[in-house]
Design brief:
It is a single chain. The protein is mostly beta strands. The protein is built from one helix and ten strands; from the N terminus they run βββββββββαβ. It has one helix spanning 102-108, and strands spanning 3-7, 10-13, 18-25, 34-39, 45-51, 59-61, 69-74, 79-84, 93-99, 122-127. The strands form two sheets. The protein has a six-stranded mixed beta sheet, with no helix packed on it. Strands 1-3-8-7 form a four-stranded antiparallel beta sheet, with no helix packed on it. The longest helix has 7 residues, at 102-108. It is globular. The protein starts with a strand and ends with a strand. The relative contact order is 0.31.
Length: 128
């Protein structure tokens, strides 16, 4: 199965910024649409943002992060990024990368994971 290694998390105060990275492990990223998901304590994986397979591909964001988060990718580096600005305490959670359903992203703007094999993720903690 396709796997990612996520990094870049940390502890910041409200209003701070973090840049997350995820590297595709053992496969080439460029054919796939990719998404960032987060899991708050006691909750399931929430789709935060997705990007189509092209470097300049269409992007989607959950309403709660629009205007604050930016997803990008560098296929040559096999890496996807999530720039997070103006962080809020409700952004706290473990963040994961995953391949997403390209058809759902294209047709309805949904970030739906294609697989359920989640990596270790990277912890983001935002204090008020």
């Amino acid at each position: 199965q396709l796997q990612f290694v996520e990094s870049g998390g940390g502890s910041v105060q409200s209003g701070g910024s973090l840049r997350l990275s995820c590297v595709a492990s053992g496969f080439a990223l460029d054919p796939y649409a990719v998404g960032w998901f987060r899991q708050a304590p006691g909750k399931g994986h929430e789709g935060v943002s997705c990007i189509e397979s092209r470097r300049d591909g269409d992007t989607k964001y959950v309403d709660s992060v629009k205007g604050r988060f930016t997803i990008s990718r560098d296929n040559a580096r096999n890496t996807a990024y999530l720039q997070m600005n103006s962080l809020k305490p409700e952004d706290t959670g473990v963040y994961f990368c995953q391949v997403v359903r390209a058809d759902l992203l294209l047709l309805s703007g949904q970030c739906v994971s294609s697989y359920n094999n989640w990596g270790r993720g990277t912890q983001v903690t935002v204090s008020s």
